[in-house]
Amino acid sequence: MDVFANLATGFAAAGTLQNLWFALIGCTLGTLIGVLPGIGPIPTIAILLPVTYGLNPLSSLVMLAGIYYGAQYGGSTTSILVNMPGEASSIVTCIDGHQMAKQGRAGAALAVAALGSFFAGCVGTIFICAFAPPLAALAQQFNSPDYFSLMVLGLLTAVVLAHGSVIKAIAMIVIGLLFGLVGTDVNSGATRYTFGVSVLWDGLDFLPMVIGMFGVVEIIRNLEQPDVGRSAISARFRDLWPSMKDFHESWRAVIRGTFLGAILGILPGGGVVLASFAAYTLEKKIAKDPSRFGKGAIEGVAGPESANNSAAQTSFIPLLTLGLPSNAIMALMMGAMMIQGIQPGSAVMTSRPDLFWGLVASMWIGNLMLVIINLPMIGIWVKLLSLPYRFLYPAILLFCVIGVYSTNNNSVLMVFTAGFALFGYILVRLGCEPAPMILGFILGPLMEENLRRSLVLSRGDPMIFVQRPISAILLVLSACVVALIVLPALRKTREEAFQE
Amino acid sequence: MFRVKSPQDFGSAIVFLLIGLAGLYFGKDLTYGTAGRMGPGYFPYLLSWLIIGIGVFVGLTSLAVEGPPIEPPQFRPAFFVLLSVIVFGYLMSYVGLAITGVVMTLIAAYARRQVNLFESLLLGIGLSIGCVLIFVYALGQPLPAWWGE
User: How do the domains of chain A map onto residue ranges?
Assistant: First the structure.
């Protein structure tokens, strides 16, 4: 089988001392920010982007990916011990995980979360091996009109599967697309929306935007909340081993969660949050005795924690094969690849197999590292939780601004950061989720380029988008997605799904 | 008379309309071109109108459908956090990371009501040393550590 040869290439590439080191850094950092509430993977990856300029492409991707799935592990620790989700994807874990901790079964909950995540991570890796090559082969048939339609479909699906108002999310995407056009137009050389500021000629740097709208806004919002004392339920390493009964009750939930997460992760806009919510709902629906949920049912921890981890892995599939980021984090990964001069898409697998398979292999290695980082060292992470926010936020803020400033030592960037933070703050107050804007921002120039090329091909006839079969299919799917939103019956199901 | 039933949506509509109109206004000098030969202004123009369209739709809906109110914003956290970000950018090129880090921590401390200057000063010094060690020495970022060096 080709897959084994490919995986061998991958493990050889990921197994170098340097890449193992960066995987370890990424996973540790990911766990850290997963444990700490108030900073998520989006600003962390953004802060570290300037650091990756000097690294080779594989090392930087390995580290950034490690932060993403590491955060899924860390997030569960906070949820279980403190009843406060470190990450959005761990919100549902609080429900039963913290109840278990209160009943003195914190160790079992943590162990099931970590081992379930490890299993899910392994399956996720296999999913990538199985699905990426055929998708990449399909993507090689794509032409400009197909890519344009694919982006339309991807963006629409991302909106429907995310929570919150659909129409406002679409607006955020379009605003992101518009912001993405700032700078010099590659075709005509005309500068657009630069207002004579020379920093803008190369386009709006996405770090001030991402860090302003996610990092800084998050700090402001946390400061608006009154201080709450966090009391962690203690857990020691020797209490960690789950009993046979726990094991027996949870293994099926782990498998169900893993596969549900893997499938939802591939969908554009799917990602970890949706996966964990869906897995919890599923477990509750099929349980013999649903009333146990909310009172410390171990399946309520095992399912969602496995699901968010496998989704974290498989959400790389659309990016690595189609060049389409499915959520804001993947948009950042795409940015990281482009900084390194790599255009994400089907070509990566053929032109840089070491990079593609190396990243896949590093995810498996990273998952193994995470079990070790998370279980025996649980005491250290618990200690960190007792750090009050008044010590934490100046540190986070300082990291945020250093991250932006180190891109090109220009103080104008800090004004942009503050401006975007203000903008993001207003948006959050108005109930607009800013994450879709990042997707639009990254895709803006690509979408324009593909639209332009398509219309040049057809001499201005928009019918080209329905005459090409691939593009037509993608547009029909997009129409179905829109129908999902508009039809009231289906809309109700969606709202119910997010009610949980 | 119209009554705003969903203040959040109404506010969003105003933001969308402003962005769409700004997109049109500041893009008015860009060549529009034709569909077959898109000028630099074609796509921005399309997007701006799309945003305006959505803005109008959301605005009209907010008059018809009940929605959540806008939580009143708190001035203090937002002001001091944003101020510290801007001051950071201004000071960095003059005095370097070590001093800027301390000043920034002190300004950020005022974002909370209970300010403990001594504690924040210690925290700032500690963070500054840590950041210089991590970012300048360990990661080799081209940042001025001390007086613009």
Answer: 2-499
